[in-house]
Amino acid sequence: MSIYDLECETIQGEVVSLSKYKGDVLLIVNTATGCGFAPQLRGLEQLHQKYEQAGLRVLAFPCSQFANQELDDNSKIAETCEVQFGVSYPLFAKIDVKGDQMHPLFRKLTEEAPGVLGSKAIKWNFTKFLVDRNGKVVERFASATEPVRLEQSIEKLL
């Protein structure tokens, strides 16, 4: 199964196929607006602005599985991301990124790009996955990795 075979719900409630991003470089991130790493939303926006024309797509997936740091309502999440952090890249509906209800996208991402010592589990908000233009997950970045530090990896794929 390819990443492009999966569907996700946007924050507005529309179901979209990830095949719409075929040929793009993807930076997929589990986010939480109440997390201490939430300022990274601005850094992700800067990457989006800098590399969108070259084919980078930042895709944010809100999650509340780590210390319940995400709002309950998707419309409030969208508003917070836009007003407080200037987010203009695609936001998706709140999902689970671990456990029994883990979204198939994050199941695939964690299988293809394990973390430290081969661990597949996502340990916190703002784990980042870089996917090449062919849908291959090529790199995983820890929560504490600032978006600006991803530029070299992104440029290699663009």
From TrEMBL:
Q: Which Pfam families match?
A: GSHPx
A Gene Ontology molecular-function term?
A: peroxidase activity
Q: Which domain of life is it from?
A: Bacteria
Q: Keywords on this record?
A: Oxidoreductase, Peroxidase
All copies of the Thioredoxin domain together span: 1-158
Q: Which PROSITE patterns match?
A: GLUTATHIONE_PEROXID_3, THIOREDOXIN_2
Report the family membership.
Belongs to the glutathione peroxidase family.
- What is the name listed in the Swiss-Prot or TrEMBL entry for this protein? Glutathione peroxidase
